[in-house]
Amino acid sequence: MNQMESTYGLMAEFLSADELLEATKHAAEAGYREMDAFTPFPVEGLSEAIGFHKTKLPILVFCGGIFGCCGGFFLQWWPNVIGYPQNIGGKPWDSWPAFIPITFELTILCAALTTVFGLLALNGLPCPYHPVFNVERFALATKDRFFLLIKADDPKYDAIQTRNFLAELKPREVSEVES
Fold first, then answer.
1. What is the extent of the structural domain holding 108?
2. How high is the pLDDT of residue 77?
3. Burial of 6 (0-12, 13-18, 19+ CB in 10 A)
4. 12 within 8 A of 147, measured Cβ to Cβ
5. What's the rounded Cα separation, in Å, for the pair 132 and 177?
6. Where residue 169 sits, what CATH number does that domain have?
7. What is the pLDDT of residues 19-76, one digit of tens each?
8. Minimal CB count within 10 Å: which of 39, 43, 89, 163?
9. Does the structure show a pLDDT above 80 at 151?
10. How many angstroms from the chain centroid is the CA of residue 21?
11. What pLDDT sits at residue 67?
């Protein structure tokens, strides 16, 4: 097994949010794109510095809502108009205003379910164990330390050059994250 397969990336530990934010900006300017940051609290501007991309979740939710809308309408229209038409009180078979409440409810239900399952799938959840837990000092990420991870699958990643680059950012420590 080669070095790239056994290494998840390199992680630098910083003492403050400002140091982490500056380091992240320098890493992005240097061309690193596969990065992640771990902080004990939200840091303003960090997601922009890391370069979070747009998510496909809104499109999935919209498609789930359209599916629910069309499915809800069809589930009422087909039995009333095609499958078992009954003339009750002289009302038309395809009286669509009567179908609106269930159509609306199925639109919301399908959109909500698509949101939950799409969120889980797009975030790679559930993930009960992450490789960063292999770094002993990472336990401080929930207390008072800030970590920048450059992943090994970054096109610019080179174990030695990336370690030297992170060392230039003056972190407290640079650790190798094993897969």
1. 57-122
2. 93
3. exposed
4. yes
5. 6
6. 3.30.70
7. 999 999 999 999 999 999 999 999 999 999 998 878 999 999 999 999 999 999 999 9
8. 89
9. yes
10. 20
11. 98
